[in-house]
Specification:
three-stranded parallel β-sheet
Length: about 300
Amino acid sequence: MNAVFEPSLLFISDESWLDEEQQDAFLEHLMSHLNTIDKYDLTRIWWTEELQRVLVEMPQMHPWYGSDLRNPIISILHHQFYSRTEDFVEDAFPCKMAPALVSNYSNTTVLEHFLKLIHALVDYEEDFYLCVGLANRLLNGNYSFSCDCHDKTPKHFLLNQGKDWLQYIDVAAQFFPSTIEEFDDKFELGMEIVRLRDFEGKPYLFDFEFTKKIKKSIVKEKKYQIEIFEAVVRKLILTPEEAGKSDLKDEFLKRSKEYRFRVTQRPSSTRIHYDLGDENQLIFLEYYGEGEHDDGL
């Protein structure tokens, strides 16, 4: 499913651009979407020839002036945006949208072309993500689209800010490694998403590493993939005392002189064993799946 960028996310008036605070807020908001999409390879952005013409032809709007490229952040912005666009043919007529959008840009024809793009997506029954600018965020509800030629519209999912993308990522499907070779590229990205989305971005309290043995045991797991992500992240954001009192049931094993914590509760009782490294480091040793929880004792 592709995304649509509402015009106030892409364009800003000259007056607002000259206000440093407003310019910074605009760029931060737009970059939060582009950075998240790019980092996790989430989607493409529907775009049309007519919208492109508005973007490049005179009179131009910020941040798409050639002179804006002197700012290295805007150079990155241009590259990230253009590398993600995918062409679509706009409809001959715009659809209706409610509530009405706030226009904080000078060339208002861009709104008409945006609504023609939405109308084309309705015609082709294309579901889409709707990313909106700062002035058009909705705390409650969603936008609706309508026209006289279609009884129903495709699904669309409102994203008020860049971090809203995280709720639409299937972490297990996209980032759980299926081979040891994939582990380093995928697993820590999945951990990061879980930490930001499910644990309010709490910082890790420990450095960490994964042994080859645990990588090998984790990639075999087919059932408790998201639970592994969640348990590892929780272990890293909790103090030892908090981890011991939580349902992780963090404990020291005298016989093997290792530590372990639960990934899932009984009856499956899957666990991860770990050891302490130097200078506040955790070394994750091995994952014990269902039916293996007494192994390693």
